[in-house]
Amino acid sequence: MHFRPATARDLETLLAFPVDPVIGGIGPDRLREELAAGQMRLPWSWLVLDDEGVVVGRALWWGRSDSVTPLALDCLHLLERVDDRAAVAGHLLQQAHAGFTAVRHPPEYQLTLPTHWRRDPAAVDAVSWRVAAAALAGLSEQTERLQYEWIPGDQHPTSSQRLRFRAGDEQEFLALFEQAAVGTLDVTTRRALVVMDPAAQARDDYNFYLNCPGERAWWRVATAPDGEPVIRLHADAGAERVTATTDVINVPMAAAFDRAGFRVTETRLMLEGRTTG
């Protein structure tokens, strides 16, 4: 097997490569959009070729349009005829990671899965070889998350008379992020606190959300009647879709989304490198 980043000559091959029939993947329309937006790029797209030069696999990394290096692996797929897909994919990831210059830590791998994927033996197999490949490339830490969605027509929570919503400035949100990290069940936050102090972690979270799609003006601080910060805003503003995620182990947060009328649309399995202090 041979591994290399894609070039302009490979574009049609990348676009025509099939998605996984079990867990899906990135189809040609989305790939074109991501390439046009600079969120996927040919040098971040790696190919697997057999000894006859036939493409039998691909891996696609994603980043923001202003990213210098990729932030996450979004698609990893080898054809079924490839023997020992875990080992082959592991070597692919190792070579790609080495080729991403200026990357301090290998990008995480985000697997998007059906909600009840563990009930499907084919899905379990599709996940298993990818998890094994990621581990070979140093991505051995696993976090499973639930993706939630609310759209008009779903259960509409009753407006609380106990809460008030107001805007907050940068320093207030930083302080709230820092407070929320104390005793958190969020796996990513807990891992971050191993290598940085609470203030730095809060700043990291703040910057992440600031760079996510959406408007900073939408951010609100929910307070009790006495002014203590303790959020239904978007539904009343006419939002057509509201999304959220929480870790599977964060049962209280998941229960809060359930009560608010959100529904689970998919599961995300995050594979990352081990955090060291």
In short:
This protein is α+β, with helices and mostly antiparallel strands. It is built from eight helices and ten strands.
CATH architecture of the domain at 2-139: 3-Layer(aba) Sandwich
Largest sheet: 8 strands, mixed
Computed CA radius of gyration, to the nearest angstrom: 21 Å
- Helical proportion? 25-40%
Name the strands of the widest sheet in spatial order: 1-2-3-4-5-10-6-9
CATH names the topology of the domain at 2-139 as Aminopeptidase
The general outline is globular
**Count of DSSP-assigned helices:** 8
Structural class: alpha+beta
E-strand count: 10
Strand content: 15-25%
In whole angstroms, how far apart are the ends?
37 Å
Element order, helices and strands?
A: EHHEEEHEHEEHHHEEHE
Mean pLDDT: 82
What assembly state would you assign to the polypeptide chains in this entry? single chain
* Low-confidence spans: none
Give an overview in words.
It is a single chain. The chain has 277 residues and is of the alpha+beta class. It has a domain at 2-139: 3-Layer(aba) Sandwich (Aminopeptidase), CATH 3.40.630. The protein has 8 helices and 10 strands. The chain has helices spanning 11-16, 28-37, 85-99, 121-136, 170-180, 187-195, 198-210, 251-259; strands at residues 2-5, 45-49, 55-62, 72-78, 108-113, 141-150, 164-166, 221-223, 242-247, 263-272. Strands 1-2-3-4-5-10-6-9 form an 8-stranded mixed β-sheet, with helices on one face. A two-stranded antiparallel ribbon has the order 7-8. Strand 4 (72-78), helix 3 (85-99) and strand 5 (108-113) form a beta-alpha-beta unit. Helix 3 packs across helix 4 (121-136). The model has no long low-confidence stretch (mean pLDDT 82).
